[in-house]
Amino acid sequence: MISLKKYFLITAGCISLFLGIAGIFLPILPTTPFLLLSAACFLKSSQHLYIWLTTHRIFGSYIRNYLKYKAITVKTKIISLSMLWVLILTSALFFAPFLWLKILLLFIALCVSIHLIMIKTLTPEMIAQEKSIIELD
């Protein structure tokens, strides 16, 4: 029988996974912290879900590389920054009715951009090391 703690952690992991996926498309929601929270929740509650998440063809390497190296690829940075600015500028120009809201959106985009740029970039050596580890498994 599943314990209440395990049920809670699985539920929290699924919710944070959903929020992380939504964060890919919504610039205000951060993707990485939610995916890492999902991994932590699944690690403590369900080995099956943890393995599924960390070996997932889309999220797996992203999570493993961030956990191991605290780094993301240049491609991830470029896509993230591009989507961030396109969506924020669209929102600020066409949907935000107040000047203070437009300024706030631009300030948030600037802060998130600085954060993304400050994250270490995954080097080819790190990627090669990760691929060799996966091949050994």
What does it look like?
The protein is an all-alpha fold. It contains seven helices and two strands, in the order ααααβααβα. It has a two-stranded parallel sheet with strand order 1-2. α1 (4-25) runs antiparallel to α2, α2 runs antiparallel to α3 (47-54) and α5 runs antiparallel to α6. The model has no long low-confidence stretch (mean pLDDT 88).
The biggest sheet, with number of strands, parallel, antiparallel or mixed sense and barrel status, is:
2 strands, parallel
- The class by helix and strand makeup works out as mainly alpha
Name the overall outline.
Answer: flat
Assembly context of the chains: single chain
Kindly state the percentage of residues in helix.
over 70%
Rg for CA atoms: 17 Å
| Major sheet strand order | 1-2
Q: How large is the count of helical segments? A: 7
Distance between the termini: 31 Å
Range of strand content: under 5%
Sequence of secondary-structure elements: HHHHEHHEH
- Mean pLDDT reading: 88
Unreliable residue runs: none
Count of individual beta strands: 2
Descriptive key words:
137 residues, mainly alpha, two-stranded parallel sheet, 2 strands, 3% strand
Secondary structure elements and pairings:
Elements (H helix, E strand, L loop, with lengths): L3 H22 L5 H15 L1 H8 L5 H10 L1 E2 L1 H22 L3 H20 L1 E2 L2 H13 L1
Parallel strand pairs: 1-2
Brief synopsis:
This protein is 80% helix and 3% strand.
